[in-house]
């Protein structure tokens, strides 16, 4: 299974994501934001956390217009898999691959701490390693993680079981406690918490490892 991790000038979780994929058994290629094409035979694209272009304008807005993001969108539109974490989630909403927006945290402060998440669905390659209702601990590190969508979008997300994770104790004001959402075909996931930072014992826990392990296993079999 081949994963491509996009690197922007302000990315700071790209290596963490690459290591999580590698430890799960994937081949990983790092792709610079100015590139216009992905490597051949890529199965999944990782859009990592960080501060892609310093969070100017809106978080992820400039990154979403980088040359490589045209290939990311094309990959997703052909049915390819994409995982966006933290700033990567913001980028995916800016490209239109996922609905909603990420606003400033309700307390107007940067938050960096472990949080408990509830797994809302196991019906995706990203969440199949968990049980619905299972609680896991994953760290957050963001200033603009307050997920918002209009009532119609929320009704559709809940009705189609596309809310992947919710916060057990909402840290940022996200509507309906939403921490991560899936695309309509369930092949694109965006989430603010960082599973790649909780993927091996030295990081303080392994609750995030199941996501990468299951992704690699399922996509390798596809």
TrEMBL record:
User: What Enzyme Commission number(s) appear in the record?
Assistant: 6.3.5.3, 3.5.1.2
One matching Pfam family is GATase_5
- Location in or out of the cell: Cytoplasm
Catalytic positions? 86 (nucleophile), 194, 196
Does the keyword section mention Ligase? yes
Pathway participation: Purine metabolism; IMP biosynthesis via de novo pathway; 5-amino-1-(5-phospho-D-ribosyl)imidazole from N(2)-formyl-N(1)-(5-phospho-D-ribosyl)glycinamide: step 1/2
Q: What does it catalyze?
A: L-glutamine + H2O = L-glutamate + NH4(+); N(2)-formyl-N(1)-(5-phospho-beta-D-ribosyl)glycinamide + L-glutamine + ATP + H2O = 2-formamido-N(1)-(5-O-phospho-beta-D-ribosyl)acetamidine + L-glutamate + ADP + phosphate + H(+)
Residues spanning the membrane:
none
Signal peptide range equals: none
Q: Which SMART domains match?
A: GATase_5
Annotated PROSITE patterns = GATASE_TYPE_1
- What GO terms are given for molecular function? ATP binding; glutaminase activity; phosphoribosylformylglycinamidine synthase activity
**Which terms under GO biological process does the entry name?**
'de novo' IMP biosynthetic process
Q: Return the GO cellular component terms, semicolon-separated.
A: cytoplasm
Is Nucleotide-binding tagged as a keyword?
yes
Q: Where is it mainly found?
A: cytoplasm
Annotated function: Part of the phosphoribosylformylglycinamidine synthase complex involved in the purines biosynthetic pathway. Catalyzes the ATP-dependent conversion of formylglycinamide ribonucleotide (FGAR) and glutamine to yield formylglycinamidine ribonucleotide (FGAM) and glutamate. The FGAM synthase complex is composed of three subunits. PurQ produces an ammonia molecule by converting glutamine to glutamate. PurL transfers the ammonia molecule to FGAR to form FGAM in an ATP-dependent manner.
The name under which this protein is listed is Phosphoribosylformylglycinamidine synthase subunit PurQ
Its source organism is: Roseovarius litoreus
- Per the record, the gene is purQ
